[in-house]
C-alpha cells in the first residue's frame, strides 16, 4: 500500500464540500455569517484554524499560496501555515503578492492592490461585530436579521464620549453591500478602504466560532461613522525607515531601552519590493553597506 | 373649525378585547377588556400572582394571548392588531412609539455603556447619525429627569437606584413615544426617592400627553399617577373605575381589603 497519509490539502473531500457550501452561501449573502461545522485542525484555536480550513477547501493543485501574519511573510505563524500546505497539498508558495492566487492573512491586507482571480482568506477570532455590546447570540442574530444596527453606533458614540474621537483602531465595523454590518477581523482600520470595491474575492473563516463570511469582488464596503466624526484611516506620521514609503501601514519597532524606535512597513513583501527597486529609508544604509562589503571581500 | 388634536384624543390608542392567557392548566389572565385613550394613565393593581405582569406582557406584544386581541392605533392613524404585525414592525414600534420601564433598571439599561449612549441608543436605532445632536438631545433629557449632566459619560452601574430608574425613563422617552408601559417603576426604591420619581413621572406624563399602563401593587402610586384603576385578582378584573372612586369607595370586598391594608400615615 502506498496510500498517502493525508488527502490533498489535509481535509477529506466531504469536509471540503461542506465548507465550500458554506462559502458559496456566504458569497451569495455578502457579510452574512454562515455557520459551518468547523473541524479540529492540527494547530491551536487562535492560530488561524478558520482561515486554514477555508484555504484547504478552495485550494487547487495549480494555486500559488502566500501566507502573511501582520503583513509579514516570515513570522512563525505564516511560515508554519505555508509549509503545512506545501506539504499536504504540494502547491507552489510565494511571498510576492502579485504572483499569489490565494493569500491567507492575519490582521492585514497587502499594500499591493489585489487583482481579479485572487482570493484573500482572513483568519477571524471573533466574527460577531455586536458581541461586546450584546452578549446573547440569539439576540445578535435577530438584530442582523432585522438590520437593527443602532447598537453599533453606540460603540462609536462611546469612543467619542471617552476619547474625543473614534478610537477604534482595528476591527472597525463595516457595512457590506448596504445590508449586513460585519467585523473585518482585526485588521487596522487603515485597511478598511481597501475592502471597498475590491476586485479580489475576500473570505473570512472563524474556526473557534464556526462561522464563514465573505465579500464578493466589487462589493461596496462602507466603514460606519457619524456625520460630524467621519471615518479616518490611521497611520503613524513617518516614512518607512527601510524603504521610505509614505503611504504604507507601519509597524513601530522598539530598538533600545532609551526610547529609540523605528517605523517600518508591516507588509514585508511590499517593503522588500520597494528596496529592490532602489527606494531607501533613513535606516536602510547600514545593512546594504555590510552586504556590499561581504561581496567585495568574497 | 375641526380641532385635529381633540379628534385624535377621541379615539382609543390601545384596545384590549377579551384577553386570556393560560399556561397549561393555569389560567394567568381571564377575559380582560379595556380601552386606553391618549394621555390617559391606567393603573393595574392587585397582589402578586393576580396576572398583572402577564397582562402587561400581552399588551406590549411580548406574549401572545391564548384568546382575545390587542390593537394599537399607529402613528398613521390606522388601528392594527398586534398579532398581525411582523417582528420587525413590532420591534420598531417598541423602540419608537412605545416605552417600557422595567422594575429592575438593569433590565432596561445597558449597564456597561455611558448614560449618554443609553439615552442616545434609540435615536441611533432610528437613524440619527450626528454625534453632536445625539449628545445634545441626551444631555437635554438627562436635565429633564434631573440627572446632573456632568455624569453623562458615567455608566449607569455607578448610579444610585433612583438615578438608574430616572435614566431608564429618559431612555424610553427620548423618541417621544405615545404609550409607555411601566412595571412597578418605584419598586425597591426608598420612600423619599419614590416620591421624587412619582413627582417627575406625573409632570412628564402631563407635559408629553403620554398614555401609560402602569402595573403596581402600591395603591399610593396608583392614586398619585393614574386616572383610572383596574383591580385584578386570580387573573380576572374584579373592579374598574376612576381612581378616587375605586380607592375611596371600593365596592368589591377584595378591593376594600386592599385599600384597608394600607397603613395609616
Description:
Chain A: It comes from Bradyrhizobium stylosanthis. Chain A: Catalyzes the breakage of the C-P bond in alpha-D-ribose 1-methylphosphonate 5-phosphate (PRPn) forming alpha-D-ribose. The complex is a heterodimer of chains A (298) and B (265). Chain A is an alpha/beta fold and 298 residues long. Helix content of chain A is 30%, strand content 17%. Chain A has helices spanning 13-28, 49-58, 76-88, 137-145, 150-163, 192-195, 268-276, 285-297, and strands at residues 34-35, 64-69, 92-93, 102-106, 119-123, 174-176, 180-182, 201-206, 211-215, 221-223, 250-254, 261-265. In chain A, the strands form three sheets. Chain A has a seven-stranded mixed β-sheet. Chain A has a three-stranded antiparallel β-sheet with strand order 7-6-10. Chain B has 265 residues and is of the alpha/beta class. Chain B has helices spanning 4-10, 52-59, 87-96, 105-108, 115-125, 131-144, 161-173, 191-208, 219-225, 243-248, 253-260; strands at 14-23, 26-36, 41-45, 67-73, 79-81, 98-101, 179-183, 211-216, 228-233, 236-242. Chain B has a six-stranded mixed β-sheet, sandwiched between helices. In chain B, strands 2-1-4-5 form a four-stranded antiparallel β-sheet, with helices on one face. In chain B, helix 5 (115-125) packs across helix 6 and helix 6 (131-144) crosses helix 7 (161-173). Chain B is globular, with a radius of gyration of 19 Å. The mean pLDDT of chain B is 90. Chain A binds chain B through residues 133, 142, 146, 148, 150-151, 153-154, 157-158, 160-162, 226-229, and chain B through 87-88, 91, 110, 113-114, 116-117, 120-126, 129-132, 134-135, 152-153.
